[in-house]
Amino acid sequence: MSGVLHQVLSGLATGSIYASLALALVMIYKTTHHVNFAQGEMATFSTFIAWSLIEAGFSYWVAFLLAVAVSFVIGLAIQALLMRRLANAHVLSAVGVFIGLLLIFNSISGWIFGYTVKAFPSPFESGNEKPVLGGYLSAHELGASLVTLAVLLAVYAFFRFTTLGLAMRAVAFNPQSSRLVGIRVDRMLALGWGLAAALGAIAGIMIAPIVFLDPNMMAGILLYAFAGALLGGIDNAAGAVAGGFAVGVIEALGGAYVVGTELKLTIALLSIVAVLIFKPNGVFGRHVVSRV
Amino acid sequence: MITKPGLLAQTARIPERNAIVWRGAIVFKLIGLAAAIAATFVFSGYHLFQLTMVIIYAIAILGLNIVTGYSGQISLGHGAFYAIGAYVSAILMTQYNLPYWATLPAAALVCAIVGFAIGLPALRLGGLYLALTTFALAITLPQILKYRAFEDWTGGVQGIVLAKPDAPFGLPLSADQWLYLFSLAVGVVAFVLARNLLAGRIGRAMRAVRDHPIAAEAMGVHLALLKTKTFAVSALFTGVAGALGAIAVQYVAPDSFSVFLSIVLFVGLVVGGVASVAGAVFGAAFVVYMPNVAEKISKAAPDAIYGIILIAILFFAPSGVAGALARIAERVRGKDRFKDGIPLQGGTR
Amino acid sequence: MLTSAAEPMPPLLEARGLKAAYGPSTVLHGIDFAIDEGEVCCLLGANGAGKTTTLRAICGMVRTEGEIRFCGERIDGRATEDIVRRRIAHVPDGRGTFMELTVEENLRLGAYLRPTAEIPAALAEVYEYFPKLRQRLRQQAGTLSGGEQQMLAIARALLLKPRLLLLDEPSFGLAPIVVEEVFALLERIKQDQRLSIFLVEQNANLALALSDRAYLLETGRVVMEGTASELAKNEAIRRAYLGF
């Protein structure tokens, strides 16, 4: 029984990271109806920025904040340079551009930082701590999930209580009406991209000590985020967060008791297929009229 | 080797031009085929191998084109079908001692079934769901191929090494030459089949679904089933290409079939031209020869070049190489502009 | 009505040779109109005459040719956001409320361009006109009745503190008794604030009663203009639009 509890807690810990990446995907989806296939590679690139800053002697949290800030700017730039022009694009063009970005970020990560697998430091462990919470979680797992939870709460508060957050939600629901109350829609979309990139960066930096850092680090993580987003309903931010946690737990339990760790990605694939078969709008998603 | 794109659609539209255009097309095709056969004896070694790979990728991209270009659905995981085809072929050859040519139908069948199974849940929903699911499949597949329980068949991480087939009937051809001609023959059959499929009733229904899904449904087209069947056919073509690829490379291993294979096929599709049968050949040539060029441009980040080209084409030449050529041809003949591609811009709002 | 003989004051809004098109189909074939400060002006016409397009053209929501001036300055070709920032409020067809957001959030968005300090007073003023909205602040806008949604849309527009209010068919889809309520409110707002309004309306009776002046639009051309009472007396208008 304690084994199960251990897996559930550890699943929730990684789930918090999937949740923040899923939230990033949903933020972009809600405002643009595009799925950012490059989200994972962008996050990897951000993690490399943090890594090189730490290597250069910056303290962990300074590097963390700088990397998140740089990622935010990269997100803004992508919206301003590419996505703005794709506002009315055919879905194929949009997917193509995302794939192009995926290639570019993956390639540049490998080029600048190398393809060797790197250990990434954790601010919560110095190497010899005992597991916390009665041995159920590693210090990093606990720390990372607390950071991610704090970030998720901050994002919630931002959208719920600030005028800027309200304006961004308004743009997601109805860009035309948003213009009519004087909101600068393109700026809000850019801000959304920036936030999504920053969330991705945080997810990358938090997961890196667990999965180790290399240019392809996030491919699998992105899959879990997809699964989480679909499970929660791709147009439902809160649902996607819950879905991310759920997928984390499913992964941990499935990996430990059903298929073994070697086939963990298959769990993500099967979750996606299962959601599409049984709950195509997600567990928390609104009923969506089929977009043919 | 290449005929004018969009030709078939025109012959269907303008019957009085039929005879002239048709004769022109035949001549073009014969010249192309003759040139392709002659290449067997002009090139050798690595260059001939590269040409073989162009044919193989052309078949794979043709498969992708059937689903993306003609039914408007996006697959980011066709590399998975290529991989499955390759593995079916390799396993049948090594474990069951089947002759290489006999493995192609088996690969086709398996991929069609897997395609149907993957397509069924995703295609009910339309939009981005197929892209998401296939992308997930492409990322997951290497892990499945490495799985220890399947090791007896798949060879695990090590993969399977295959023998190169010799020319049959005592033909005076090297193994490379024979492999090239064999691939060419399969390729010709695949392209003829695809053309007939796309020009016929099914192809019309597919285009109707792509362009006017609601009207198509109102006219009695069973949307989800047609899309799923289309996807299965598309997986079948790419699976055959994978089987040929395994025979040509004489080796299959999980890491040769990462998600990047799927992405490369997608890039080939966009570069060659979506919804253009001939575009598949351009796309394949791009995929095979581009790595050399990309490495010359940037030794450090060759994949970035792919990404940049992909984005540039989507912004500036969304109908790809085939579309650009067709537009030039149309302009020379002073006719309507190429209309079969998917436009970059969708609705006005 | 000139303020001084030498310098005639420019109209609040003036359009000259205004053309508009959706893709290949031209909807407005070069129309002229002007609205003075403090004036309520209505645009009458049958379905498809181009009334909604005229309002959309003012707000930069369609491609246009010709000149549009607001307070003497060109605004044609500018982004909708910039035009709105000159305090032109637009209640579009279909009302343009944010269905998924609450009434309160809709109102907060209406006051998006107002300085934070002014917002409480502005909200209080709006609640005075629309007391019902105050009771439904937490409710999703999409769950309001049609009349309440129209009230919310007008309230949202008023929160901009507009110099010109564009109203697109405020009577659309509402029960007659609700329509009367809406127009009574508009009359009150007009009296209280001397607000300039450009009104598009199918219901010519109500529109002319509220308006000072009117334009009649037919297939993208202005075919008649005059004071509201002139148009109300006009035989052709009466037969075609007033129904008596």
Which descriptors would you attach to this protein?
heterotrimer; B: 349 residues; mainly alpha; ABC transporter involved in vitamin B12 uptake, BtuC; two-stranded antiparallel sheet; 15 helices; disordered N terminus; disordered C terminus; C: 244 residues; alpha/beta; Rossmann fold; 2 domains; six-stranded mixed beta sheet; four-stranded antiparallel beta sheet; 10 helices; 10 strands; 26% strand; globular
Describe the structure.
The complex is a heterotrimer of chains A (292), B (349) and C (244). Chain A has helices spanning 2-32, 39-55, 60-81, 91-113, 139-161, 163-173, 175-180, 185-211, 218-232, 237-258, 264-278. With 292 residues, chain A is mainly alpha-helical. Chain A has a domain at 2-126 and 139-215. Chain B has 349 residues and is mainly alpha-helical. A two-stranded antiparallel ribbon of chain B has the order 1-2. In chain B, helix 3 (45-68) packs across helix 12 (259-272), helix 12 (259-272) runs parallel beside helix 14 and helix 12 packs parallel to helix 15 (320-333). Chain B is globular. With 244 residues, chain C is α/β, with parallel strands linked by helices. Chain C has 2 domains: 9-87 and 162-176 and 194-244, 3-Layer(aba) Sandwich (Rossmann fold); 94-161, no CATH class. Chain C contains 10 helices and 10 strands. In chain C, strand 7 (164-168), helix 7 (176-193) and strand 8 (196-200) form a beta-alpha-beta unit. At the A-B interface, helix 4, helix 9 and helix 11 of A face helix 5, helix 6, helix 10, helix 12 and helix 14 of B.
Helix-strand blueprint:
The complex is a heterotrimer of chains A (292), B (349) and C (244).
Chain A (H helix, E strand, L loop, with lengths): L1 H31 L6 H17 L4 H22 L9 H23 L25 H23 L1 H11 L1 H6 L4 H27 L6 H15 L4 H22 L5 H15 L14
Chain B lengths: L6 H7 L4 H25 L2 H24 L9 H18 L4 H24 L5 H18 L4 H4 L5 E2 L13 H25 L1 H11 L1 H6 L4 H27 L1 E2 L6 H14 L6 H19 L4 H15 L3 H14 L16
Antiparallel strand pairs in B: 1-2
Helix pairs in contact in B: 1-2, 2-8, 3-8, 3-11, 3-12, 3-13, 4-5, 4-6, 4-11, 5-6, 5-11, 8-9, 8-11, 12-13, 12-14, 12-15, 13-14
Chain C lengths: L12 E10 L2 E11 L4 E6 L5 H8 L4 E8 L2 E2 L5 H6 L2 E4 L11 H8 L8 H11 L1 H5 L10 H13 L5 E5 L7 H18 L2 E5 L3 H7 L2 E6 L2 E7 H6 L1 H8 L2
Parallel strand pairs in C: 3-8, 3-9, 6-7, 7-8
Antiparallel strand pairs in C: 1-2, 1-4, 4-5, 9-10
Helix pairs in contact in C: 3-6
